[in-house]
Amino acid sequence: MSAPNSLGERPVPPRRGFAGRGGGRVSWVAAPPEWRGTTAQVCGLWPFAGGAGSPMVGVPVGRDLRTGETVCSDPISWFQRAGLILNPSVLVMGRPALGKSTLVRRMATGLAAYGILPIVAGDTKPDYVDLVIAMGGHVVNLARGQGTLNPLDPGAALAAARQLTGTARRRLLADAHGRRVTMVSALVTMNRQAAVSDVEEAVIAACLDVLDEHHTESPATLVEMLEVLSEGPEAVRRLTLDRGDDGRYRAAVHGLESSIAALLQGAMGDTFAHPTSTPVNVNGPLCIDISGIPDSDAKLKVAVLLACWGETFGALAAAQALADAGKAPPRLWFIVLDELWRVLRSGPGLVERVDSLTRLNRQEGVGMALVIHTLKDLVSLTSEEDRTKAKGFAERVGYLAIGGVPAGEVPLIQDVVALSGPEAELLAHWADPPGWDVRAGREADPPGRGKFLLKVGGKAGIPIQLQMVDAERHVHDTNKRWHTRAGD
Q1: Are strands 70-72 and 60-64 parallel, antiparallel or unpaired?
Q2: SS3 of 119, please?
Q3: pTM of the prediction?
Q4: Among 25, 23, 308, which Cα is nearest to 139's?
């Protein structure tokens, strides 16, 4: 023990003790053992118990990079059970090959165990087919020669409406009518690379009314819509203000006729010219596989992806209407919208069309994952109006799961959520290219593979390392073609 000084005061030892002989200095302090338990289990340990720093509600997605604690995260659990977010949705972003699809698949797998049905409305790679098959779900294939999709088909809405009465029936039919008008308008906009005018949209709606009146047994197709435009019934003509002049009518609908005709051939082939080959069923796990359409066929790929979204959300609206009326069991769904950037950048005004197609009248029961590469995908659109609306997709989601992004993308992210200096540096580091593993004689894994920063508004982010278990690896291989060698 140190002797007191002239004032009778004894020196205060530093936190590791006094140095020197007899000082008792400890060069290494062992961390105390830690145990995790519920408040009911550890309440008797007060005041030696502390709250955990990572959410433990939802699907286990990995470990906190700072503490090693297990982190649980999914948009439905964080919204419904934990109350951490105000909207059951997540925006997953990051550079390719860093694990975005793997993170979404993990969420879908865990939510399926909770009874929440995964719906992949357009798988472009494919990333989710094996997972849905392993769950005993249904896979719909759409590509040239592999299936057709009729954008005028009300799908499940018509069958559901037969079981409903009164306001519920009228609301569902009106919703289905609006979705079909939006679907045709979006396809025309995408194909012609110019927006549909208000008169053209009204003409499309009037044509649908005429077709629905005469096609009660089976839905009409775009072929029949062209015939209606050619015949020009009064219900359609009066919207063009032709005043009995056939020449004025032909001039008013010529552009729309040409655009719809182009959807039935040319770059689109016959994908939208025939009845839907396989109806969408959202009563179980579902994946619409469009990976058979090559990236070089970009226009068809975007058109089919857009149509898949419209078909899927129409089926969900019908299922919700039946559940609200007590005609079907209530269900919860987890919707995956991958490659969002492809559609948003394919034509002017499509941001608003996508927003209309993917909006449900009764939001309860639907969680969503939007997957993009970077926010530049949303803010690099041609018009300022589209850029503002696209940015709104990121601002309205419940939270962001951000993987490695280039340093130049960080300011764009900071326009949506607050990032601290260390968080920004972490995201940029995760985007660094991989090094070379000398011992293995191959390229090492990228530094950001499987790493994500979970951000809820201005709160501090949670950096995680996604970890897979052996049981799920066979449904997470998205590079099968590279792994398959001749003779194997």
Answers
A1: antiparallel
A2: strand
A3: 0.83
A4: 308
